[in-house]
Design brief:
about 80 residues; alpha+beta; 4 helices
Length: about 80
């Protein structure tokens, strides 16, 4: 279900740094985090999203999240934006 939501999103942001930047601008509606990603890497994005009241969805696999984002490699974090 979560992967389908990412696949159907009009605009996604892929990667930890880009997601954090988008969270700071306030245009993110939902954040997706892969459970097999390094927690030390994803912690910043998760905490920022939680502080802003943005839902964080945990998914099983970086590889599958990358595929849902239409990239050739795995993705630890991605975000759906409103614009």
């Amino acid at each position: 279900m979560s992967y389908e939501k990412v696949k159907q999103a009009k605009k996604t942001i892929v990667g930890i740094k880009q997601t954090v930047k988008a969270l700071q601008t306030g245009h993110v509606t939902e954040v997706f985090v892969a459970l097999d990603a390094d927690v030390r890497m994803t912690k910043c994005a998760v905490l920022l999203a939680q502080n802003k009241g943005i839902p964080v969805v945990l998914v099983d696999s970086k590889r599958e999240l990358g595929r849902a984002c239409k990239i050739q490699v795995g993705a630890a974090v991605c975000a759906i934006t409103e614009w």
